[in-house]
Amino acid sequence: MFEFHNAINVHDDPNRHVVLGTPLDMEPGEGQELIYFAAGCYWGVEKIFWETPGVVATAVGFMGGHADHPTYKQVCAGGTGHLETVRVVYDTSKISTGQIIATFFEIHDPTQGDRQGGDIGHQYHSAIWTTTDEQYDLAVRTREAYHDTISEHGFGAITTHIATAADGGQFWFAEDSHQGYLFKNPDGYQCHSRTGYACPVLKSRS
Question: Where in the sequence is the active site (predicted)?
Fold first, then answer.
């Protein structure tokens, strides 16, 4: 279980993660990589990743849309084209790219299109935006492998959009109140609509 002994006061520095203590806009250092995940309501998605061993920084925001500086209210109202997205920096010596992508597929139902459970809207669409060729290759191959797994249990096609971060456009940070939301609001809403089936963990071709 994740321990919160490193948590900082939310008012100390709004530019640092309230649990991990790392900068929200942390750039990956040596042995680290950056990837972006959209898997439904970003409050619960972010919590899962900040609790994942090997993840060193998370932040919530919006990606894949066409408006500048979108607010949470605007994205939820529709029309900006953005998805609720979690920015994740991870240590590749502690968690492989294949493992973190498999985690992404397991924590939501990637077959639901513009929804996750009772959350309905384009902002809840499933997506991965990658920053390396290896990430992109593993994301595509993992999507195919997971489709094979869950289709045997009656699930339809996976609708997860996979593209490079460059194609996804600017990642816009959400308001301070949304960063580390479920630490600040322990009884807050979490949506975890899942298939219930394990995702294969693939290895790099290199």
Answer: 41
